[in-house]
């Protein structure tokens, strides 16, 4: 029995966006992201880690010595959600926390050799996917892709 305001009305036609929404790009991003993370997900699963661990390992390797506060700001997550993931990575020997030289309460994060190896193992299949995609493109297209990705990000608040 249909409701009065039609909120439960069934739609049997495919959603198109009516020219206002770029469904093709949205779906392309869904599928690209699914496949882009599938290889690292399989590697992480063997260690009992997930995508949050991947992000932490990636950014600590990209900026060794970053503080916990820097990492929180980069990842836009809460201390509570980072604490569990970081503890697991430290306890497993992938990351070390070192007290800051001026402020002993400050915690600087560094990858261990094992942490560096994990970061590379996770990035290699992703890099192969990127290289494969660029093989079919013109040399200048890389700059366009970088601009596109930057444009998709939220503006940095300074």
Low-confidence stretches: none
Average pLDDT confidence is: 91
Specify the helix fraction band.
Answer: 55-70%
Structural class designation: mainly alpha
* Number of DSSP strand runs: 3
From N to C, what is the helix and strand string? HHEHHEEHH
β-sheet strand percentage: 5-15%
Intertermini distance = 54 Å
- Strand arrangement, largest sheet? 1-3-2
Structure description:
This is MarR family transcriptional regulator. Keywords: DNA-binding, Transcription, Transcription regulation. Residues 22-154 form the HTH marR-type domain. With 158 residues, the protein is mostly helical. Helix content is 59%, strand content 8%. It contains six helices and three strands, in the order ααβααββαα. The chain has helices at 23-47, 51-62, 68-75, 79-91, 113-135, 141-152; strands at residues 66-67, 95-99, 107-111. A three-stranded antiparallel sheet has the order 1-3-2. Helix 2 (51-62) crosses helix 4. It starts with 22 loop residues before the first helix and ends in a 6-residue tail after the last helix. The model has no long low-confidence stretch (mean pLDDT 91).
Keywords:
158 residues, mainly alpha, 3-stranded antiparallel sheet, 59% helix, extended
Summarize the structure.
With 158 residues, the chain is mainly α.
Q: Strands, helices and their partners?
A:
Elements: H1 23-47, H2 51-62, E1 66-67, H3 68-75, H4 79-91, E2 95-99, E3 107-111, H5 113-135, H6 141-152
Antiparallel strand pairs: 1-3, 2-3
Helix pairs in contact: 1-5, 2-4, 2-5
InterPro entries: HTH_MarR-typ, MarR/SlyA-like, Tscrpt_reg_MarR-type_CS, WH-like_DNA-bd_sf, WH_DNA-bd_sf
Pfam family, one: MarR_2
Protein name: MarR family transcriptional regulator
């Amino acid at each position: 029995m249909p409701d009065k305001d039609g909120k439960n009305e069934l739609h049997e036609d495919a959603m198109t966006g009516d020219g206002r929404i770029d469904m093709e790009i949205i779906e392309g991003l869904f599928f690209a992201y699914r496949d882009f993370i599938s290889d690292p997900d399989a590697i992480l699963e063997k260690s009992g880690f997930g995508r949050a661990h991947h992000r932490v390992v990636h950014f600590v390797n990209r900026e060794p010595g970053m503080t916990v506060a820097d990492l929180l700001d980069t990842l836009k997550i809460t201390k509570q959600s980072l604490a569990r993931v970081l503890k697991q990575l430290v306890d497993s020997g992938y990351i070390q926390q070192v007290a800051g030289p001026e402020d002993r309460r400050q915690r600087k994060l560094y990858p261990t050799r094992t942490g560096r190896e994990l970061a590379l193992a996770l990035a290699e299949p992703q890099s192969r996917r990127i290289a494969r995609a660029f093989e079919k493109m013109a040399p200048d297209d890389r700059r366009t892709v970088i601009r596109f990705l930057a444009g998709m990000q939220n503006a940095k608040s300074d």
